[in-house]
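Bench log. Compound arrived from synthesis this morning; before running ITC I wanted a structural hypothesis for how adenosine-5'-triphosphate sits in the protein. Inputs:
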Amino acid sequence: MSEVQEKKKIILSGIQPTGVFTLGNYIGALKNWVKLQEDYNAAYMIADMHSLTVRQDPAKLRQQILSAFAVVLACGVDPNKSLTFIQSHVHQHAELSWILSCNTQFGELNRMTQFKDKSAKNADNINAGLFTYPSLMAADILLYQADLVPVGADQKQHLELTRDIATRFNNLYGNTFKVPEPYIPKVGARIMSLSDPNKKMSKSDENQNSFITILDKPEVIIKKFKRAVTDSDMEVRYAEGKDGINNLMSIYSVVTGLSYEQIEKDFQSKGYGDFKTAVGEAVAEHLRPVRENYERLIADKAYLEQCYKLGAEKASNFANRTLTKVYKKVGFIAK
Ligand code: ATP
Ligand code: LTN
């Protein structure tokens, strides 16, 4: 981050390299990363350490981390404007995480709904990292003194815990951390599954038809939207109880920029079939440049390496300032 930029507010966000990113990840998080990098000093990371909370195959993980890094750039995050790095390259994350976990209560972690969901899904591997993961996420954010954290609605609880940890630490040891605010989009904060609109669209869903990935081909995207579950009504209208249509309307609104009123007007005398086709085509068109950029970037390993190495160096310098301050505050002796 250059000195001129230093006056801008800071944002930080992360994404786990646990599979190909979905339209939910894109609308809820990545799209805003791109938008916000213009007005903020932004830091974006591939949260590879977080992904170990669920068992991963090492060779597959290695490939997914690089692919995730390329997708972030393909979406439009500019490594010359934003700090882009891989979490495990910056050792300060693990170090601050330890200090913060000693300042996080068991009861607080035990209330996290993501822990409950993920431990139900992975009953044979309820490891300590899955439980303490919010302390690592707090470290990610607090190391960079972030003002704002752009995430989807499912991360709100972790952000609230981060704020509580920061406030508690500041009260105990004197002002150390910026207390961050969540940035959750008004439309698209929770994109729902196409096969069950009561469930969040998730990249780890077993049913391939329930999610769109950022890298799906146009014909696949259109086909998946045609199959999307809706209701027995006929009207394209945003209303309670029409979860499937509401979900498609929010997706369509985000990718076209049209308001719900305008969408209702445009599809007044048309059926669900026409609407689903229109949503599919608009999403396919919207994601086309991202897929094309990705194909170009993933073929250029040397460029990707140059970007993440430079990112790690800059992130480490920044993170070290906060960590040094924290070590001093808690009473450690400087070496
Ligand atoms: P998994 O399915 O493996 O649990 P995920 O798809 O939830 O993972 P994460 O890496 O946990 O992906 O999330 C990355 C970002 O995408 C977070 O900011 C999260 O809030 C956002 N996000 C994830 N799913 C959705 C969704 N369905 N709608 C909107 N935002 C989402
Ligand atoms: N926990 C998040 C990913 C994540 C993150 C972060 C988001 C890791 N560190 C810091 C915002 C800020 C997730 O699972 N979606």
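What the model suggests: Residues 3-189+301-330 form a domain with the Rossmann fold fold (CATH 3.40.50.620). The CA atoms of residues 192 and 200 lie 4 Å apart.
ITC booked for Thursday regardless.
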